[in-house]
Structure to design on (328 residues):
């Protein structure tokens, strides 16, 4: 290293610039709109850059902050009495941001914001997601009557997913499209996982959720990717976002097993025990029972108490307590 290298300014990474931009929005806005922290802000910025055709490598912290405010301004608009049915901006020309230069781009950014507020895992990471977004905007612009609900078209894996989507988005007509578009993209993500290419897998799996917003298989796989990358906070966030889609006992048991892995990795053995013990309420698993025995050896009576009343520990750890019972 040369003498003058000590005085050169260190080049910030994408996540570091996103963290600084997140802070520039103010603590209240950061807490409200980026519950996943700088990592979520970084994902949002990548999506906005794809929509607005911005080269983030040429942007500094100031530009990152301006771009991120395009999201926070519209997020504020969406939650202040604006339509929650995924419609586009009524008056996009009113929206002013140096990176959102046309009404068309404004509508696309607003559509992305509306979807992301409902599903934090949604991102625009490639051309397929961008086409999906533009299709939603184009369909909304062709709506002939005010208040008419447009049909949403998705590729569900199972009938249970279709019914779950109806339950969560029941104000909109939902069509189950024929074909394996979602499964093909999900399987591609699984192949990336098997090859150890977890970043590629994450982008591919997120893309599959554009085709199937429930996508339980993809959501569990996303959690596993983050866990394998040792990014436990992202794994936890992804898993918590999955909870509202779960109805089958086997899926719920898997939710608590994966959460148990995350708790264990973080050194919270009480939380891990509670998750593993509660998972047995929904599905028997000899491997889980063996893990519980191993932890119980080190925790004695405290471990026994957790196994008798895991719900109390789950609540203290702010872990969702799902109610469906395999025996009920």
């Amino acid at each position: 290293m040369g003498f003058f290298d000590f005085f050169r300014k260190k080049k910030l990474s994408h996540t570091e610039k996103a963290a600084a931009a997140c802070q520039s929005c103010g603590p209240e806005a950061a807490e409200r709109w980026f519950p996943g922290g700088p990592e979520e802000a970084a994902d949002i910025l990548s999506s906005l850059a794809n929509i607005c055709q911005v080269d983030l490598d040429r942007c500094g912290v100031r530009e990152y902050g301006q771009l991120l405010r395009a999201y926070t301004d519209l997020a504020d608009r969406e939650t202040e009495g604006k339509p929650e049915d995924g419609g586009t901006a009524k008056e996009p020309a009113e929206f002013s941001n140096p990176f959102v230069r046309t009404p068309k781009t404004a509508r696309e950014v607003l559509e992305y914001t509306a979807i992301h507020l409902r599903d934090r895992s949604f991102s625009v990471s490639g051309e397929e997601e961008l086409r999906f977004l533009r299709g939603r905007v184009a369909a909304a612009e062709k709506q002939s009557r005010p208040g008419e609900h447009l049909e949403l078209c998705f590729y569900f894996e199972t009938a249970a997913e279709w019914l779950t989507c109806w339950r969560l988005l029941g104000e909109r007509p939902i069509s189950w499209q024929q074909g394996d578009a979602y499964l093909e993209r999900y399987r591609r993500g699984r192949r990336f996982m098997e090859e150890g290419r977890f970043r590629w897998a994450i982008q591919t799996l997120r893309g599959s959720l554009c085709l199937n917003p429930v996508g339980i298989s993809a959501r569990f796989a996303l959690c596993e990717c983050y866990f394998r990358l040792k990014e436990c906070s992202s794994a936890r966030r992804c898993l918590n976002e999955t909870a509202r889609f779960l109805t089958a006992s086997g899926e719920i048991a898997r939710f608590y097993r994966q959460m148990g892995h995350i708790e264990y990795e973080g050194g919270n053995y009480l939380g891990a025990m509670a998750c593993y013990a509660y998972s047995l309420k929904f599905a028997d698993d000899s491997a889980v029972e063996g893990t519980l025995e191993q932890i119980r050896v080190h925790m004695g009576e405290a471990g026994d108490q957790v196994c008798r009343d895991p719900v109390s520990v789950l609540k203290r750890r702010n872990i969702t307590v799902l109610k469906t019972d395999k025996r009920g």
The beta strands are 152-154, 174-176.
